[in-house]
């Protein structure tokens, strides 16, 4: 299926590595010009080069810390001579920087998680909105997590930020629909890419086992929860993002899509 993304311009936050990078590559391989984002300039340059070579589209860098409101504003201001329209915004940045249970998370951990995961989405969307309004079929994709709506046991600060993102995304779908802008949330289960290694390290520490044992246990758990008996990867998520970003999904807005191998399957 040709998703007709040629000539579209996409911005993906937190995309020099992990899931964001897979999304940026998938959009570029469908023909979109992509702006990638990250803090480390060298990694950003290398990723831009790699995606450019694999896709033959224009890849631009947004070398900005997603928790820096001024940096985000400045990016849009100084690039306004060429960035006249935006068609796709993927708010992907936002992962666990610190792991913890309710008792050992401090105020600053809650606030940091809110800044990185939730406020980055608010700030990028606010700056991008005038450009998205100029697109004939703009789409905002916010990357949530199963914990946006399914309680776990740990990392309450991250859960709160992801749940806030889901709630506000639905409000944005209501408000932005008048401008033809669609807003959807994609919620992956644990995937074996991106922050996976940090999850493994946290589990090894909590369970007092080796990283190899922790990784095996995590993989076994994930597989046991899925009726397919498999664990997801970044490209399982990026395929859906590319579809939702395209006009083929023009009737879809205000929704939350789980990419989880059936973990949250409903009983009919
Ligand atoms: N991995 C999973 O299992 C999983 C499951 C469910 C949901 N998710 C969600 O999927 C998204 C991506 O996850 P991931 O595992 O791929 O994350 P990740 O590996 O932690 O993502 C790292 C990327 O984000 C950039 N980044 C980190 N902090 C940044 C900041 N302050 N400003 C700008 N860029 C920043 C990194 O570049 P620099 O370090 O150079 O800045 C890098 O490009 C997150 O929203 C996460 O919550 C992931």
UniProtKB/TrEMBL annotation:
<dbReference type="InterPro" id="IPR036291">
    <property type="entry name" value="NAD(P)-bd_dom_sf"/>
</dbReference>
<dbReference type="InterPro" id="IPR020904">
    <property type="entry name" value="Sc_DH/Rdtase_CS"/>
</dbReference>
<dbReference type="InterPro" id="IPR002347">
    <property type="entry name" value="SDR_fam"/>
</dbReference>
<dbReference type="GO" id="GO:0032787">
    <property type="term" value="P:monocarboxylic acid metabolic process"/>
</dbReference>
<protein>
    <recommendedName>
        <fullName>Short-chain dehydrogenase</fullName>
    </recommendedName>
</protein>
<comment type="similarity">
    <text>Belongs to the short-chain dehydrogenases/reductases (SDR) family.</text>
</comment>
<dbReference type="InterPro" id="IPR050259">
    <property type="entry name" value="SDR"/>
</dbReference>
<dbReference type="Pfam" id="PF13561">
    <property type="entry name" value="adh_short_C2"/>
</dbReference>
